[in-house]
Amino acid sequence: MRFSLVIPCYNEAKNLPLLFARCVKLCEDKDFEVIIVDNGSTDDTQDVLANLLPSCLQCKSIKVAVNQGYGFGIVSGLNECSGDIIGWTHADMQTDPIDVLGAKNLFLQHGENIFVKGRRYGRPLGDKIFTFGMSVFETILLRRKLWDINAQPTMFSRKFYNEKWKNPPTDFALDLYAYYLAKSNKLKVFRFLVRFGDRAYGTSHWNINWQAKYKFIKRTIDFSLKLKRKGY
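and the corresponding structure tokens:
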């Protein structure tokens, strides 16, 4: 069983050496490849990657010329995966790429026909309350238990991706889309605990203040209503 982990990066040049070191550690397991997506970055991401990539043959990168959203970057990476099991995590080092080894163990135990997500611990109280509220809302609206929707890593089979994914969203709603689609197709969902830490560098692109959270909530609700209408 081969595994492919996509990591979208948008202006994460300072984080990349730390991230890449963890990816190299992950790739000591020869069943893994890592695809780092330069998602339209305007900083030194390309130069940093050019220096780092030659030291690990299981790590590669692709470039999205113009940032078209978090989801667009991830899907661009998923389309380049060679693994039987594919998925993504974040580049900000708040979650460790090596967490995906926990997902691997679940696939080895239960087979490919499952859906795996991390479940975060160690987050600030305000973020926990926000996540709780969104989880309750989505669970009631979509009539499926959807909890800690944006937790990482997210992993699933290539077959599920090739056969079931149709017109995925290009923004942060991708996490909801993948989770909802797994539930709708009756995949058994497995969760495992992952520590959620502080960023080493940079700031979140959405969890900045309540105004940014309001925009995130509005976009998510709009997409949730679309999911409800279409049903998938």
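(Above: one complete record from the training split.) The mean pLDDT is 93.
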